[in-house]
Fold each of these.
Amino acid sequence: MPAATRYLGKPIKRKEDPRLIQGLAHYVDDIVLPGMLHVAILRSPYAHAKIRSVDVSKARSAPGVVQVLTGADVRGSIGVVPCAAQIPDMKSAPRPVLANDRVRFVGEGVALVVATDPYVARDAIDLIEVDYEPLTPVVDPEKAIEKGSPVLYDDHKDNVAYRWQLEGGDVAAAFKKADKVVKQRLLNQRMIPTPMETRGVVADYKPGERQLTVWSSTQIPHLLRTQIAAMLDMPEHSVRVITPEVGGGFGSKLNVYAEEALAGYLAVRLGKPVKWIETRRENFQNTIHGRDQINDVEVAFKRDGTILGLRLHVIADLGAYYQLLTPLIPTLTGLMASGCYKIPAIRVEIVGVLTNKMSTDAFRGAGRPEATYLVERTMDLVAAELKKDPVEVRLKNFPKLQDFPYATPTGVIYDSANYPRSLDLALKLSGYKKLRQEQAKARKQGRCVGIGLSTYVEICAMGPSSAMPAGGWESATVRIEPSGMVNVMTGASPHGQGQETSFAQLGAEILGLEPADVNIIHGDTAIVPYGIGTFGSRGTAVGGTAVYKSLMKLREKLAVLAGFLMGEDPAKLVFEDMKIFSKTQPKKSLPFGEVVAAAYTAKTLPPNMEPGLDATTFFEPTNFTFPFGAHVCVVEIDTETGDVKLTKYVAVDDCGNVLNPLLVDGQVHGGVVQSFGQAMLEEAVYDEQGQLITGELMDYAIPRAADMPWIETDRTVTPSPVNPMGVKGVGEAGTIGATPALANAVADALSPYGVRHVDMPFKREKIWKLMQKVKSPSAARADRPQAARTGRHQNGSRRPK
């Protein structure tokens, strides 16, 4: 990779921002086609029920209604919603695009109306009469796996979707020789991704060309094309997917949904374009949810803080059906259970459970925030048990530099890291020693102040095809036009990551141009070569590497051509300031455009050189990458109200080499804020009847700007050996590192009250009740019992009933 000179490593403002800020960009709902029809979907009000009958006669006769369809009408014409992930002995849970004889969660589609106007369509679904036979719903995953629990599927004997086990090292021996063992139950609550733009689909069919075009707010345009073609039993070359601007995804649009296939089916059947735009309530009910794990963790350790072993039992609530990656996500928690620590022995058991709720799937971090949360809370519990500083326990258990590449007991191999360096920088930037002194003074004054930290590692740059359900490579085609302008066609599908800017920086640096001379094209399957998409912090580490390799191929070709024209050794040529010149004789040069023109006129080409300037790369990484970092924060709790205020936040992240620090900081900021949402506010709540109580933004709180202090960011740089650019990925770092730091800070603040652990979210009523149990912190310290060697800590969490 060229050394950072003019553009690489520089905080260049995003090229894509002007059109977004000025409202000139186009999202799915901005697409209007002549004769367009609109779709509304009738959704089940029951979490579990049989469908006795569906009467659509009144809806069909309503003015403006063009078509009404039920599950029976499309059965056999549209395939089930695809699931790409397979776990050994996993039970089937196929989701039809419209329910047939049974509904299994509130919000499941039962029938649809197509009309000339969206309001007519919405009114007409109220005319559909459905006769339901309510069944007993199963909402609590622990109750769902109890003997005698109602089952979601008649052909299943229980609701256990699968059992997944992983063990490395001698776990039994580790626990046998431990001086102490700490147990704790940890909850990762269910969350709703809540992108600013809900999902939407427009489909248009041209019968003469036999071409179906689907516009969708998706993160995976090519994979979506493949699946739509399969669901509709159409040749894949007859389907085109276009992804316009995407107003946030956070993993929720890394999926294939029923509405995308339904829209395509309707466009073909009716011969007119159709549009479906999701309401916010539909988004909350019917777009994937995230997290929802119960983690029972046991850790064995010595008196000096050395961790010997870890046992983890996970109950993962998968919801009623499998979406694209639903079964896979909890296994990532198991793979990353060691965190950034040298834990010799680990055993993980995951129980995937089917419940009458919306499916869980990839939500920013996707299994890794859960792993980091459990191991980082555990490290703080160990420190509290030994009465040591949490920093000391972490430093005691980091792998040494010479241990890398480091093979964990769970079977992954960390590429490169320097964990002590990032932690040291975070401690210095936050003034950690001074913070502890200030905390001691505040406590004497009766204030409730807590300091939390986390040191994390994440698995990113998803990754080698051998470990991925649908391939882990990425594509890029770079074409230099006769005018000298550069078009980069990437299989990645950026939607806020800023790669229209960073990839342009890369092109400008390698070819000696300006970023404005490099145009990034993505999201159109008719233009861009087949790609995997954007998720798992892979856009730059995998997609960017494909771009880099294609650019280098063209640079080498241009160097050979320029060297031939100038009579100069190609290895001695420099690309800079729109020129190609000799390193030893700078005056010996040619304009970049002149060399490009020579490649196209093809009159003066070297022997055996093909005309044109076009290069394609399919980059297959050999491993994942493993970014890491250290976060430190301070909270203060209002003793009268229980309100938790975040007063300081420092994030030090190591994502390898950095193409644009402005973009990196933006990703970290966004991730930290999203973590604040999980820690303090967000919680998807279903009642015992399976009704989503938090079904709108009036009931589901998300962070606001006023909730956050200034987030101070910095970084260390440990290049990855996995790709030639040495980049690792940063899109999910904030959501992985921040949540445990915030949780540790709250637990630290409440420790004088005898609280060892409290589950997220830290809502003020929950915190206030805990504090009211012990009015005097000093009394709590005096009365606090010692934790048993193998017993649960006082105030151990319990899943709410």
Amino acid sequence: MSEMPHSTFAYVETAEQKRLNTAREQGVPWKKWGPYLSERQWGTVREDYSQDGNAWNYFSHDQSRSRAYRWGEDGLGGISDDKQLLCFGLALWNGRDPILKERLFGLTNSEGNHGEDVKEYYFYLDSTPTHSYMKYLYKYSQLEFPYRALVEENKRRTREDFEYELLDTGVFDEDRYFDVFVEYAKAGPEDILIRISVHNRGPEDAKLHLLPTLWFRNTWSWDLGIVKPKLRQVADGAIQATHSLLGEYTLQCDGNPEWLFTENETNVHRLWAQPNPSPYVKDAFHRYLIGAEQGAINPEKTGTKAAAHLRLEVPAGGSKIVRLRLSSKPSPTPFVDFDEAFAARIVDADEFYKRVTPASLSEDERRVHRQALAGMLWSKQYYYFDVDRWLEEHDAHPMISSSKRAVRNSEWFHMLNSDIISMPDKWEYPWYAAWDLAFHTIALSLVDFDFAKDQLLLMLRNLYSHPNGQIPAYEWNFSDVNPPVHAWATLFLYNIEKELGRSDIRFLERSFYGLLQNFNWWVNRKDPQGRNVFAGGFLGLDNIGVFDRSAELPTGGHLDQADGTAWMAFYCQNMLEIALILTEHDSMYEEMAFRFLEHFVWITYAMDRIGDNHDEMWDGTDGFFYDLLNLPNGESMRLKVRSMVGLLPLCASTVLEPNGILARHPRLVELVELFRRRHPELLAHIAPADGSFRGYADRRLLSVCNKEKIERILAYMLDEDEFFGPYGIRSLSRYHLDHPFVFDLNGQEFKVQYLPAESNTGMFGGNSNWRGPVWMPVNGLLIRGLLNLYQFFGDDFKVECPTRSGNYMTLFEVAREISRRLASIFIQDKDGKRPVYGGAKKFQDDPHWKDHILFYEYFHGDNGAGLGASHQTGWTGLIARSLDLFGRVDAEDALKIAKGELASKMTREQVAG
């Protein structure tokens, strides 16, 4: 493994980078407007005021057109300001639908045979980090939308059946649909050009009612003293929006459309048969068009919700374009320079992505890379939740209310969230998830370094993290436990900046104190017996275990989790590395660094103690890590399921350079030596004196796995009959297809069998599956772990890949092969097919579909087809990082990517700027 010279970079600032720089350094609000609308606000915990906590049933899709939201807004291809006070989105009607299309439709958790699922086709095609240019596509059938058929057929199907999809209903047959493209281009920070292009893909001319809609989020119905904002028509083609906090904006529409006005207020008459306080309510446009109710809209041309009503007749194979402009300083000639400004923003976006994408990628790889990052940027959402206020409104505040109602999240009354946050999926998961968010930042740092760092710090702030140190999991249960990956993501981002010449110690130190509180919470809450073995519950892996790991065990006793313990070893390593960096600036961190080193050693020892023990996670006979079931009678047994749980210990590795920070701090050396003298047998077991603790270039290795364990685990992981699928590492070994693990408890059978596709159980809602499919985040961590180990072992250590193939690879080459297999999910194969789309002929063959990429939640373990949430670009956006690795041939560069020490050219430009 040869040492490579430091790469050079010629800094040239692009137009988009100038916007990023002025936003950061001068406060110019280039990010004030963006795709911050949710795709679904109905059916969320925030909007749930039910007695039984059934959020899906309390606020349904059917109610959403008529009922004002309390905590946020949703829309179709929309945008808003960064506090979601003023919103813009589309409404569509084909003349046949029973409902005006103002938002996406999908099944609730109980309606879908695999849980909740959006039943629409839409694509995030492009976006720059300041949202100076964005592009979105919605495919709208010209036939009646089959709401009832989708609900009834999916309810009829079992968990063993495929889902019934919109294409299956036939509404896209003969290409009788519209492609509705929405593009946004900023002429200035608060001057937004909007271009809507409607293409008729069908064989006949077709009519479409297009309603570009502007509305205010309803804040006045909930808070006394709020000045109600106002929309009013000020010219034939323009309306003015006035808000006491936001100021004034004008929406201008090319031509002379019919303007419709109403109020964004609940139609209580429709929902509950009570008199409406105002005759003009939220569903007025639906009633005006579909119900032909002329009195539904306000003839005074004023309100809090307004739309330009455009009747389009689109010729077969033809298109129509509508132009609008939303600005705080309206132009008297808004459309004179419109096309020119749009073209300039598209050039800026092309220039930006030319810089961020590795030049070695093919055209199709570049397409996937760009759309992955565009999806990351489109997945931003304004998230508002005042839990203190919400609990009061439920009469369930633990410190104030006299009632004893059991309401979810009651222990989080300190929480106030009101920020732009990267969402996993703005329809299926329109709420943040802590460990998802850490992975999001790894991809986001390719395009917006400042936003990525802010996202990590957000979860550690007092208004988010619990006073006891716990990081909130997700709104269904903030107290659930996600894997502790924030420290790793923090270190990754810090290392990128450091390598680029901007060492942000303040960011690292601010993060460290929040992470220290969280680390202490883990130690105190998840290792209550102080044995350095950890539980944690489902830990993001949903149904991977024999039992529901977040519930009481049916056997009694408790579970020692191999993944929970490995996550904590990984956490210790990351905190050690951060503390060592901070020690360079303040020696007070020496003691902290030693504390994490000591924690790591004891955790590693606890997973495989000296001697032949049956109450530890490492099985020396099998050569694999398993969860350990501790029964009430004192007996212990390993649950011998070969799953991702047993692979994750490979991720817990850190390489220390010789003559590095450790050698420059005598107090730290003294503490390490004292520990060595007190526990010689422990260190001899973990880091034997046979030279295996010293590697390439005299580097030192801190790892849960020694060389023998690494070889034995990799023999499973790289076996194509076990974990090594054609599209990445499976979450459960394929061995369990014919050899399911069965646990019998008094005649009740608990079984874990390889399921490469959707789950066949209702555990954790039944809408995800960790018993076979490929998941991007853990594959990314395994790649990082292999590269770290390669940094230590070098070229001399090779393993058979695939197992029994006779082909031997270095760990770098193995990491690259996994990365290649992951990328091939999305890349066209030799027949022009994308595995992600499986057998969906329309997506595979139609030129208007096949190059629009969806980044699913997880992927079929055998054929790579996309599964679960269809727009979880969040952590699946890691494919952009994977393509970076796949696009490089140099091992040293790949190592720096894994450690966060090598950024793309665009990231270099961000820092240099």
Amino acid sequence: MTYSIIGRDAETGELGVGVQSQAFNAGAGVPWAWPGVGAVATQSFTDRRYGWRGLELLSAGRAPEDALAELRATDELVEFRQVGLMAADGRTSQWTGADCVPDAGGSAGDGWAAQANMVASPRVWVAMGEAFVSTDGPLALRLLAALEAAESEGGDWRGRGGAGIVVVPGDGEPWERVIDLRVEEGNDSLVELRRLVERALAYRATNRATAGRAALGAERGLPERHVRLLALEDALGEGRIADAEAILAGLKAENPRWLDYLRVLAKHPELEGLARFLAARDRTAVDDV
């Protein structure tokens, strides 16, 4: 018993699902997504077969309405189910069974589909679509805005609980994820989910940046220790060896095992600058002896 939205980012091709419910652990069973294939929200006496098998059918080239019809045809409890499917190109199909707890229904538009049951009013699913369309930014934040809009209209009339967001890239392997976060329960589940999504997007932004990563990390509220590691990478990338030495000295003073960690990182092919820096320090230490 829940409300959810599936959506597509027309610029990046990302696909995603957002969900919130009074039910515990809703984020584990409702959202399903496969890069370059589609996304599914399966809820109301949740049958996960709609998620896994739905994506398989979309992958095989079935249209969303055909895939959903095939799954419904073999479901003895189909009138209890509520499902939304989206293909990678943004086409959608929805089903709300006659035995879903009221209020229950859905709405859909270009690249999105919202569905809800056991909610305060039909405004819940309508508000999700309105918020999704009117919100700018990454897909995860647009999905989150839709969930918050649903909650502002009364949401699940039992209260709040499990929430989650899954976003996958526009193309890639089935296991690839951009965002995969959930809060299992709690009255502030959407508040905590927003914190986690913003944190995940901050890590993603610093990982993709090529310069000024420490300043970006600090601005986005990443933990101070992580920002120091980013500052080390910035210093090495800009040739500020004295600054890098000072940062490393601070880390070692905190815990000498940081040097073990950095030596392992230096073996990664994308961190050649760190490898050269540590190798130069080792040569200097030998010469000093």
Amino acid sequence: MGTCFFFFTGIAQKDSITYNSTCVNYKIAFSASVFDQINFPDKVIWNFGDPGSGFYNNAGIKTPTHLYASPGDYPVSLIVVTAGDSIKLYDTIHVIVPVPYNFGPDIYLCEKGDTSLVAPNIPGAVYQWNDDSLTSTPVLKIKKTGVYTVRIDGCAVTDSIGIFFSNLPEIKLGDDHVMCAGETLTLNAATQNGNYSWELNGTVIPGATDGQLPTAAPGGQYAAIVTVPGCGTFRDTANITYSSFAAPPFSLGPDTLLCPKEIFPITANVTGASAYLWNTKEQTQTIEVSNPGLYWAFIQVSSQCEVVDTIEVMYRGNKNLDFHDTAICKGSTLVLDADFGNGIYNWVSDPPQRDDQNQTKQSTYYVYAPGLYSVVAQVGQCVYKDSLQVTFNDSLDLNIGRDTTLCIGEAFVLHVKTNANDFAWQDGSMALNYSVGDSGIYQVIAKNGCGADTAAVHISRKTCACELTLPNAFTPNNDGLNDSFRPLHPCNMSEYLLRIFDRYGTLVYQTTDFGHGWNGTYNGMPADNGTFVWMASYRNTDTKALQFRKGFVIVLH
């Protein structure tokens, strides 16, 4: 990157022009670190040293893009005018043709180990792989799952490759069982990156391609055939049959949340029980649990058949109350929240507040006056304590961020940061988070016992380069924030196809509408938390080129 020295308000500064690619016929994004200090310049003048591009040789925004139609060296200049001073930066960009290269098909490997990718060996070239290893040679050692490519002299080669490591599977369907009539038993052969088929009495079960399979009367010999790319094909069988003896009611109870180190008894109460077998290998009616996990029991009934149930035991962890001393304005109310779930809460204030506050026994507590506030929260056998000092002052703080430029169609949320407990946006809404729409002024009016204040920001939108950009994580919990997985901003594309696979290779979602995103569900139910692989293709309607992209996304409900 080129650098220069300039003088601004009497202090010597050093800065540089940056760009994200050196590829010909690619919309290269330019920026400069000078904008880290100058957020709102009076004027910006870019010159890309490409007179053949005519009108597009210049730009007047902080982060423009430019497409060079021919390879070569181009002098780039930037002039930033602010407060009557001019800052000038210069660089020369060496634009090249992307190296044509094919990494080959995606690679699947069994167990952890080292493998290597080899890029074209070009003497004197600078290599930059898209991982976190800082490798600068044509050979990259791969130690973890990912989608890999390489830039040569700043320009990405024409291909990428997925490397997927799988654990050596251990397929165990469990013991043979005779189930009571009306019971349901699901067999589990799920494993990382597995492809599944199932057989019943030697015949393939149509449509059974998941890692789990519910059994049904009359049952028989079930077989799971699991193929893990790179590891091989694995098989296991279990005989699951059904008796005509009716199943009595059986439940281990609801899933349970425990405090740290709490010991929890689980009892299997079944009418006519003649034998017990837990997944812990215990054969008693009651077991004591001290670790989180899934616990299940097969109960033999009248020596005829079996019933089964499962319970999940979770532990809260060592979370503690974490109050901090704070100040509020006179006339305001502070709400303290010690919510740890169902429990007993004892609050104490010094000096005492009203009796109705001291006797609430609730997890929330309203503060009307300065003082020292303490709580003892008892949840199960666990006791939590904390306190804070509350003082009153005459200040009001309000902030919703700064002016921002966005791509057309890009989602953006403004957040209110204030110590006021009464505020409203320009449309009357009172949410802490506000999703912006079109360009314009967005403002919040806030007030409390300290007075009133207004905060405003200007949101402008621009047309961005058609480079498919997808987030690396989203939280589909219906809170209105980051609830779907889709392109961050639409652009000029056609023939769009997005497919998403789970860690077992199952297709969980696909769409041809880039305005429609995945909501984190599969077959109508929330997908498991974890990492999913996405593959996308689209045609750039500006360049007519068909593009392919791969990546990962983390789902956090």
